[in-house]
């Protein structure tokens, strides 16, 4: 599933655009008996809605756990900020849990993300996948891989490693009984943290 999401993001970046609001709610998942497919949704938003960027300067609209630290600090969205979001999605797929589901999505979480807080990686996560995720999360945007690089690595893994569809399907199931913090938000909203 990560491979298909990455391919969609690669297409956005090849067009010279950024998504700016990549998170689990903007993924279209098709879970059939014999296949799992995923596509990036809300792709229209990376274009026309931001045509008047000067009017929106300084405003961040998104889902806090998926927003790159440099964006939270007021820097512009880039393809590297999309890669950070992809890394958080990869973790969601590895854990079956939404990031920071058990705490408020507020200034304190934003500050912790800017200071390097990242979600835990399960012990049973394949090493190459964990390493790729951590590269996506780098505090330095220039150290994050490109969508093309990630896609190549995931393709290589699927081609040459012992890949089992049913293992993937079980791994990507969301935990149904997690108690979500009442101030954890997974829909896009205005994020305003001028103190960062």
UniProtKB/TrEMBL annotation:
GO function term, MF aspect, one: protein serine/threonine kinase activity
One Pfam family linked to the record: PK_Tyr_Ser-Thr
ATP-binding listed as a keyword: yes
Alphabetized InterPro entries for the sequence: Kinase-like_dom_sf, Prot_kinase_dom, Ser-Thr/Tyr_kinase_cat_dom, Ser/Thr_Kinases-Pseudokinases
Domain Protein kinase as annotated: residue spans: 1-157
UniProt cross-references to SUPFAM superfamilies, sorted A to Z: Protein kinase-like (PK-like)
Domain of life the protein comes from: Eukaryota
Keyword Membrane carried by entry: no
Sorted UniProt keywords: ATP-binding, Kinase, Nucleotide-binding, Transferase
PANTHER family recorded: MITOGEN-ACTIVATED PROTEIN KINASE KINASE KINASE 20 (PTHR44329:SF288), SERINE/THREONINE-PROTEIN KINASE TNNI3K-RELATED (PTHR44329)
Protein name (record): Kinase-like protein
Protein species of origin: Rhizophagus irregularis
